[in-house]
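Hey, can you fold this one?
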Amino acid sequence: MAEDTVPQVVPQVQEAQTPPASFDEWLKGQDEPVRKLYETHTAGLRSALQSEREARKTETGQLAKQLREAAAKAEAGSEHQKQLQETAAKLDATERRAEFYEESVRPEIGCSNPKLAWLAAQEIGAMDQKGRTNWEALKQIFPELFKVKITPGNAGSGAGTPPPGKGDMNAFIRRSTGRT
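Sure. Predicted structure:
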């Protein structure tokens, strides 16, 4: 009778689960309290990042405007005017490239090589005058830039196969103590 009151301990076997493709995918699968906790935890960081981006955009916009105004005041056709115009154009191009890189690493875009994607977008004309990128055209023509590389999340798996002839830890301990 005493054996009937002792609960049986049955080891639970975990099924092999495929890891989510991204953190965002994992987060979508979580309960509402977990998602709200994450949102609360990262709200300050997101607002700081957004304000930093807006400040940078405002500063570079003002700088480009000042360069263009100085170029307009310079003697027409002079070397000084040409340099100011070139500097303003370079500043605009740098700002567009930075915005492209920031956008390319967003999870919904999923670009694996932003630098190469920038060159590809310029090559096929996938960007308009305002710097907006046609990601769908880029994905269609250069799909290899958007392949998500998923690495196995099993710690200790190495190359995915156990070393030959070594066995498990129990076998190692038995061999070490002389019990094979």
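The mean pLDDT is 79. Let me know if you want another pass with a different chain boundary.
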